[in-house]
Amino acid sequence: MKKRARNIELSSVELDLLRGLFDKENKVNQIKKVKFDELITQFISKCVARGLSESTIIFYESELKVFRYFLVDCLPELLDNFLGLNADDIENYKHYLIHVRGAKKGNVNSKLKALKTFIRSTPLKNSVGSQIEFMRDEKYKVNAFTTKQVKALLKQPNKRTYTGFRDYIIMMLLLDTGIRSRELVELKTNNLNTIDKNIFINKAKNGLSRVVPISDKVMYLLEVLLDLNNQKEYIFQTIQGSKLNRETVYKKLKRYGELAGINKEARVSAHTFRHTFAKLSIQNGANIFELQKILGHQTLDMVRVYVNLYDSEINKAHEKFSPTKNF
């Protein structure tokens, strides 16, 4: 004998609660259907709208492309259902980078940084984005030149030739301002303010512009170079008069490092000059907020890294040269 189904009457409050549960479930199901490629397209569009530099956007596209390879190889279902990603998948991605692609810690962290920024633009920013942890590198150090190494480098260019004199000024400007190599090659004659002694950096790595002060000595050198260039558009040019590129700067600095015999002691690059500028500025008592502004960092995080690294050197120098040793 079949039991008759009982008619159940629900109150309006109970009906509203049920509708809320169904609505919530439907929303979850809808969210889970968001495709990875659609989110990437939206993210890159936001980066462009924010005015981020071309190099920064290329960085995100390149690093996130590797994450897509991982999804294709290991978690293809997430391509159509990306919001099903969880913290365990991130750990598997780290394993994939290290053991499949042979990535080093610095490279892994670079890709995790891009991924974390991307995920922060999605509904997963709290559930997954907040759980992404970078790999610790106990040996991490921001390398800077010693005074001896800088002097050795500056002796290498033949200042009696145009390229040698230009390269000498490049190193002096990098040391004097801490600007990036991309910023250096993009400098135009009209970016130079000879009256207030500064240079205008137009749209740096973070998409922001800034004004960087220059010493009298370096300003004089730049003015001489401008005369040699016949006041052409770009400050740093080839012997043929075309704009200098970053690859040439990289190769030139590396060559001078070899000639100076310091290439095995230090990585000779524009970025090492940048670290050296920061180091010397801190040791000379620079205000960290001014240093942040000059270097073009959006936050104080990197400046704090410099301070933490070089504060100990300041203390050692004080201990060694303290005037009280004479009494």
Protein architecture, described:
The structure is a single chain. With 327 residues, the protein is mainly α. It has 2 domains: 31-130, DNA polymerase, domain 1 (Orthogonal Bundle), CATH 1.10.150; 147-321, Intergrase catalytic core (hpI Integrase, Chain A, Orthogonal Bundle). It contains 13 helices and 3 strands. A 3-stranded antiparallel beta sheet has the order 1-2-3. A hairpin with an 8-residue loop joins strand 2 and strand 3.
Give the percentage of residues in beta strands.
Answer: under 5%
Can you write the helix and strand succession as a string?
A: HHHHHHHHEEEHHHHH
Q: How many helices?
A: 13
Overall structural domain count:
2
Assigned CATH architecture of the largest domain: Orthogonal Bundle
Family: Belongs to the 'phage' integrase family.
Keywords: DNA recombination, DNA-binding
Domain Tyr recombinase: 140-319
Pfam families: Phage_integrase
Identify the notable features of this structure and list them briefly:
single chain, 327 residues, mainly alpha, DNA polymerase, domain 1, hpI Integrase, Chain A, 2 domains, 3-stranded antiparallel sheet, 13 helices, 56% helix, disordered N terminus, disordered C terminus, CB, DNA recombination, Tyrosine_recombinase_XerCD, DNA binding, DNA-binding
